[in-house]
Automatic annotation (TrEMBL):
Residues 538-559 have a biased composition (Polar residues). Residues 74-409 form the MACPF domain. It comes from Cladonia uncialis subsp. uncialis. It holds the Pfam family MACPF. One of its GO terms (cellular component) is membrane attack complex. This is MACPF domain-containing protein. It is found in: Secreted. Residues 535-582 are annotated as: Disordered. Keywords: Cytolysis, Disulfide bond, Secreted.
Length: 582
């Protein structure tokens, strides 16, 4: 890997970032077997799957997907499962919580679509058969309330690096030099609020995207199509918004977490490759070389196949590699190439793969992005007097909550029964730090983005230690976190198969990767400690409206020690913990 085969910690750390996500979408219809060496969880430690759903699975137009499946006679579901009539219905009308959605990772965004409620309803039978761009035989039945625009065919690619989070936010905000260029979700200035907690001054950032648009599908006039039952269920019982009232704050946080702050009104199709890379910048030599480091780490993918391989031998590159994190996704075009690129954007032959994929982008259109409307705009446009007066409260709540993110500190314990293994954070707004009450074991590298353990290479296989325990803390601004676990195939002989597990102590859930055929297992939307802290006020903000069962360590660990995570004066200027124990 990276120009040769090596067992160095640096290259193993970089290898840990080469991942792929499998999307269940809304409801799995027509499940397709896969061969990727990865498995996927979606917030449920009991429900792993190694099948990938079709890109746009099931329909639901009036209530929740669960109710739709339960009442399958409302539509010929068997026909739907075999030949999706209108795939955009898996997204249009559903919500995204823009206080926690990753704006630059399409696969993560699709996974974060909230499926509890659909806010539009319309008649599928009043539809026109239309040929999908790039296909000679694939048709969609497009409802008459939907716009269908194929006059958007264009290819574009961009790559930029930024010294720190402030520079990144300035460029990406509405009116900035890169506004709308990299985000997979658009919808006006209100969408940009999520950027404020996503980028941090302790990191340098690189953004790359290559995109071919071929189709836009949008709802033409949502005002008359609002699902009044869904809206009334969610909105009518809300109290007036009062930032000083804890129940009011929890109520609106709960609304956004279950129904979304913004509702999808348009889906774009085509082909898209997105890459977001970040690394700690406290070392000035790393900050100055960040762009060339990214070029080398991804074998020239972002620079037309050109890079200086000698950079990899520099000391600053080794430091860069220890903290480098990334999210990547590739969809549309040749599906085999898209999977290979998305799974390994730093492969030895990535540039050749990219050029071949680039020549196929007119084939097999897939979702490339979403356009949204704020929830309060839908509320305002309704004629239902039971809730339409609440639009201003919802807007005020969003602006306050987005600018005063509740901070979650979650005590965790990782146990490794393998020669090597680690955890990678996949949420850019999250950090890891050592637990000050528990020393970091020998052989552990712990940065703000990842944890990596490797046993001493002189240790014989039969002498490998069992249950290597690493206690740490996750800090993040969302009620859920994404991470990946990986390990070597070799483990202690008395421990069975090699395994790595993480216990998020406050929720009390354990997530494990014990399959030797799985390179890295991703855990998506995993619940963290619900006892969040409003850093602006220092008050506890439990994000559940309904009180949760008492957790044995939740109260004592509701906030981390100050020496671990000092409260930043400006959001995004968190400390930069780096612990290396050898």
């Amino acid at each position: 890997m990276f120009g040769g085969h090596s067992n160095s910690k640096v290259e193993l750390l970089l290898h840990s970032m080469l991942t792929i996500r499998l999307l269940p979408g809304v409801v799995a219809a027509a499940l397709v077997p896969i061969s990727f060496n990865v498995s996927y969880y979606n917030g449920n430690p009991q429900a792993a799957t190694t099948t990938a759903a079709a890109d746009s699975p099931a329909l639901n137009l009036t209530t929740s997907p669960q109710d739709f499946i339960a009442n399958a006679t409302a539509y010929n579901f068997s026909k739907l499962a075999g030949n999706l009539d209108f795939p955009p219905a898996s997204y249009i009308g559903f919500g995204l919580d823009m206080t926690s959605t990753m704006l630059f990772d399409l696969e993560s965004t699709k996974e974060h679509v909230l499926t509890a409620w659909c806010f539009f309803e319309y008649d599928l039978q009043r539809a026109e058969k239309k040929l999908l761009p790039g296909s000679n035989s694939q048709y969609w039945m497009v409802p008459d309330v939907m716009g269908w625009n194929t006059d958007v065919s264009q290819y574009d690619s961009n790559y930029e690096t930024y010294m720190n989070g402030s520079a990144t936010k300035e460029a990406l905000r509405a009116g900035g030099s890169a506004s709308g260029r990299y985000e997979v979700v658009t919808g006006g200035a209100s969408v940009d609020v999520g950027i404020q907690t996503m980028f941090h001054d302790q990191y340098s950032y690189a953004l790359f995207e290559a995109q071919q648009q071929s189709l836009q599908v949008r709802i033409l006039s949502y005002g008359t199509l609002i699902n009044e039952d869904s809206m009334e269920n969610q909105i009518a019982s809300l109290p007036p918004f009062n930032k000083g009232d804890k129940f009011s704050l929890r109520s609106y946080r709960s609304l956004f977490e279950t129904s979304g702050t913004h509702i999808i009104t348009e889906v774009s199709y085509g082909a898209r490759l997105s890459l977001c890379v970040w690394a700690e910048n406290k070392d000035s030599s790393v900050a100055e070389s960040f762009s060339s480091d990214v070029n080398v780490a991804f074998n020239g993918l972002v620079t037309n196949g050109k890079f200086d391989a000698h950079v990899q031998a520099e000391k600053q590159y080794q430091t860069f590699a220890k903290s480098m994190a990334k999210t990547s996704s590739c969809s549309g075009g040749n599906s085999t190439l898209a999977a290979a690129i998305g799974n390994n954007p730093a492969g030895e032959h990535i540039w050749e793969q990219f050029l071949e994929w680039q020549s196929s982008v007119d084939e097999n259109p897939a979702v490339t992005g979403f356009t949204t409307q704020p929830l309060w705009n839908l509320v305002k446009s309704s004629n239902n007097s039971k809730y339409n007066h609440m639009w201003a409260d919802i807007e005020d709540a969003y602006e306050y909550i987005a600018s005063h993110p509740a901070t979650h500190f979650t005590n965790c314990r990782m146990i490794v029964n393998a020669r090597s293994g680690g955890l990678d954070l996949l949420s850019p707004e999250a950090f890891v730090a050592p637990d000050p009450a528990s020393p970091v074991p020998n052989g552990v590298i712990l940065t703000s983005t990842k944890i990596y353990y490797e046993a001493n290479p002189d240790i014989l296989p039969q002498d490998l230690p069992t249950d290597v325990t690493i206690d740490f803390i996750i800090k993040n601004y969302s009620p859920t976190v994404d991470f990946g676990l990986y390990h070597s195939e070799e483990g202690p002989p008395n421990a069975g198969n090699a395994e790595i597990s993480v216990n998020l102590l406050q929720p009390g859930n354990v997530y494990a990767n014990s399959d030797p055929s799985v390179d890295i297992k991703q855990f998506i939307r995993i619940p963290v400690n619900p006892n969040a802290i409003d850093e602006m006020s220092g008050e506890n903000q439990n994000t559940s409206v309904t009180p949760t069962a008492t957790q044995s360590v939740s109260e004592q660990n509701a906030s981390a020690p100050a020496e671990t995570f000092p409260s930043p004066k400006i959001l995004g200027q968190e400390p930069n913990p780096l612990v290396v124990s050898s």
